[in-house]
Fold this protein.
Amino acid sequence: MEIEVKIDSSRTEPKLVIITDKITQPIQELIRSLSKDSPQFLIGFQDAHAKMLEPAQILRVYITAGKVYAATAQETYRLRLRLYEAEEQLYGAGFVRISQSELVNLRKIKNFDLSLSGTICVRLTDGTITYVSRRYIGKIKQILGI
């Protein structure tokens, strides 16, 4: 990808132009990340209480029994979103999908265990262990640069 920056003192605000032969997945992701601010928070529910959850405090977002939950180091909260909606809201905040039913915060991963044949074990900072599904292994390896 070629990047060019031009300084024009007559401009009052930046203007971004993307010149391409076709819209590809990386171009779509770039457009989405530039045109949408990162969410300030998600709303999590426990019983009759709602709490504002900052993306930085969320370890993972996952589905259990058809319901979507966000886990922090202290508590687990029910989200009133579908997983893909949570993924869209958390886009650009360091979250990555590791399976059909789970997103993890890359900043909350303690380590990866690659010793199992063909699978990746993910250990989070709170001690939670989860696994990258086969479908997402390539994507995770690309993100990690391995």
